[in-house]
Amino acid sequence: MSSPPETAKPDGLTTHEAISTSGYGLPVYILAVGLIIITAYFAYELFFRKSKGLAAGGPTFIIAGPSGSGKTSLFTLLRYGEKSTTLPSVEQNITTKFWLPNLLDTAKPFVLIDTPGHQKLRHGMFSALQIAQAARTIHGVLYVVDASAMSRPEQLREAAEYLYDILRITERVRGGTDVLVGANKSELFTAVPAKRLRTLLETELDKIRESRAKSVGKVSAGGDKHDSDDGDEDDGAVVGGSGWLGKRGEKGSFKLEDLETDVMVIDGSVDNGKIDPWIAWMEERAVN
Q1: Phi, psi of 123 (to 5 degrees)
Q2: What residue ranges do the domains of the chain occupy?
Q3: Domain 15-286 has what CATH class?
Q4: DSSP string of 251-262, one letter each residue
Q5: Which terminus of the chain, N or C, has fewer Cβ atoms within 10 Å?
């Protein structure tokens, strides 16, 4: 049987053509969104698998810290020996050819990884750290903070929370993984000195420890989740859980010296090129 003739529309299009044209935008939109999702997924997989592979493949130092603390500027200064003005990073900067000034005769260059500080992008740092620890290639973490902002409670809290999650990972290996808290921008008038900053961080870390332990206890009492010192993990990022750090004791008793991880707080200034103490710290750990 022959198909019934198309009914002409007032605008000159047949019924079939009108339907096809009116629905044209939706399939294209769905296709575009799908392509974006697929591209983002493969870019994510390629990038983070690469960073994980690098972290496991050679002696490694990782730079971490809150956004805007000067991490990428430090990476540039260490890698190229020059200062630069940078914007907050949204991806990792990695070099496999990092040589420490006094260790140029070493048989193998170091891997240096600069990680983004935004809270939603920190999972890459957690993953790289855990991979490097498992491969026993990690030599230290440079945790950079803006010392001039540490007198502001919200900035101090953010720096302490990120450091807390890092320490939960470094404490999982025997002897811990050494951490340098680089008090950057120490030349500014508002900068908190390293000794004072260490005390402020210990106080804040103690509050976080108590707060998280109480939160987990409340959830456990509701029967939805069980308390665990190991906490929960999500794609390498440590989230939730009590994750108790240091010795168990009274509130206000937390001290960084009680950890397996050796944590040092040292003043410095990337803008002024005054990072010799940080480099000395790296060189000491590079040969150990």
Answers
A1: -60, -30
A2: 15-286
A3: alpha beta
A4: TT---GGGSSS-
A5: N
